[in-house]
Specification:
Elements: H1 3-28, H2 34-41, H3 45-73, H4 75-95, H5 99-114, H6 116-127, H7 133-144, H8 146-162, H9 164-185, H10 200-212, H11 214-245, H12 250-277, H13 282-302, H14 309-336, H15 342-375, H16 382-389, H17 391-418, H18 423-439
Helix pairs in contact: 1-5, 1-6, 1-7, 1-8, 1-9, 3-4, 3-5, 3-10, 3-15, 4-5, 4-6, 4-9, 6-7, 6-15, 7-12, 7-14, 8-9, 8-12, 10-15, 11-12, 11-13, 11-14, 11-15, 11-17, 12-14, 13-14, 14-15, 15-16, 15-17
């Protein structure tokens, strides 16, 4: 790339990243408002969880259609529409006095948020050479996650000082900033029409082909097992756990949520480089980070008494690594699909983590209510959270089983179509096949 082209690409990347930063702020603004929502709406844990569950459910359900729309109409239009939806949704939440109205507003936020990440991924793929795409995707994810810091610190402070309506109207204003930035800065590609835009029928046909590719499925399950635990903690249940169950000061709890983001920011670029240099070992990175998250959760949940602050820091650092690791799923989508179906394939992958997230988020609320009903104790007790958070082992365990199955199929396809053997077993099989071919 020439100097001028690099400058243009960097400017467009900055615009897309700002849009994603604003989207993550809208998504995670509920994370520090769980206790305030409980007081405002007077609802049970299961009922309150619908604020986050339905938001994420809408997000997940729209990923595939949004991906197809990105392929058909280009990312800029989709990003602009998404910003307007988030603005409207946060405005509804700001003025809501009943839980159903607030849930409707959060569903609009989820719909707008659903457009953003997949669209910016498409922008990056159009503006940067293939060897730089994994690293740029990591930078996008890591910088965007600072939206959690904006919601955990200044938004939380505004919520405490000025109240529910002012805080959520301010968040709506930030979505308006994203809309303006998209219109002024973001461009679909360096050359108009460089990537063909299929009609909707062709786009859905390409989507079906992408869903049949084992690499796309491997990306889905990689995203499923890496992202979900951190999303559930940051978006809804982490703050009540830290404040009400563990007994931390709200300011300390907000800072811990920020540590989760910083950890991902520091490790993300390194994972991007490793992904680009060792594409045949991407699943090993995924499995290593999932193992680390599991060890951290087990240590917290089995700790006798209240978990100490250093152990909680270890937990949020481990959860922070899950975000960058989930980006590996999108790299599978990129490398196993043509550019014309990249939006749809990325949407399929993105469904993975958020399907796991809203499933766990809802189950945690149900278990918290059941624990309170059985024990008669407080809703957000430490014992209740220990039982509720344990549901993660079941959900992620299922995801791991299916990830291994998808990995086997993907490796088989690589061996059959390209003669590439991955892993000790496949390397041995590949060696035998090459020796047989040589004898012939």
């Amino acid at each position: 790339m020439t100097g001028t082209a690099t400058t243009r690409a960097s400017l467009v990347f900055a615009g897309g990243t700002i849009a994603y930063l604003c989207a993550v702020t809208q998504r995670s603004s509920l994370g520090v408002a769980g206790v305030a929502a409980a007081h405002r709406f007077g609802a049970s844990a299961a009922a309150l969880s619908t604020l986050g569950v339905l938001q994420l459910a809408v997000y997940a359900l729209l990923q595939v259609p949004v991906g197809v729309l990105v392929d058909r109409y280009g990312p800029k239009r989709v990003l602009a529409v998404g910003a307007v939806l988030m603005l409207a949704g946060q405005a509804v939440v700001a003025v809501s006095t009943s839980l159903p109205t607030a849930v409707g507003g959060r569903m609009l936020v989820g719909a707008g948020d659903a457009t953003t990440f997949v669209a910016v991924l498409r922008v990056i793929a159009a503006w940067f050479p293939a060897r730089r795409v994994p690293v740029m995707n990591q930078w996008l994810g890591n910088i965007g996650q600072f939206g959690q810091v904006l919601s955990a610190v200044p938004f939380a402070a505004l919520l405490g000082a000025a109240g529910w309506t002012v805080a959520f109207l301010s968040a709506a204003g930030l979505a308006g900033v994203a809309f303006v930035v998209v219109l002024l800065v973001v461009r679909n590609g360096p050359v108009a029409g460089a990537v063909p835009r299929p009609d909707l029928r062709t786009a859905f046909g390409a989507l079906r082909a992408a869903m049949r590719r084992p690499g796309t499925r491997l990306g889905f399950w990689s995203h499923f097992v890496t992202q979900s635990s951190g999303v559930v903690f940051a978006l809804f249940w982490g703050y009540p756990f830290l404040v009400s169950a563990v007994g931390l000061d709200p300011t300390v709890a907000a800072l811990l949520l920020s540590v989760q983001v910083v950890a991902g920011f520091l490790i993300g670029p390194m994972l991007g480089v490793l992904t680009a240099r060792h594409p045949l070992r991407r699943s090993n990175l995924v499995l290593g980070i999932v193992t680390g998250i599991g060890i951290a959760w087990t240590s917290v949940l089995l700790w006798p008494g209240t978990p100490p602050l250093p152990l909680l820091v270890l937990l949020v650092v481990a959860l922070g690594l899950g975000g960058p690791a989930s980006q590996i799923g999108f790299d599978y989508a990129r490398t196993f699909n043509p550019a014309t179906s990249l939006g749809g394939a990325s949407g399929v992958v993105n469904v993975g983590g958020f399907t796991a997230s809203f499933t766990m988020m809802f189950l945690i609320g149900v278990i918290l209510d059941a624990e309170q009903s059985l024990s008669g104790g407080p809703l957000y007790s430490l014992a209740a959270f220990r039982g509720a958070f344990s549901v993660q082992y079941l959900v992620i365990g299922v995801g791991l089983v299916l990830l291994f199955a998808a990995r086997r199929r993907t490796r088989r396809v690589l061996l059959e179509t390209e003669g590439v053997a991955v892993g000790p077993v496949w390397a041995a099989i590949g060696g035998r096949l090459r020796r047989r071919a040589g004898r012939r």
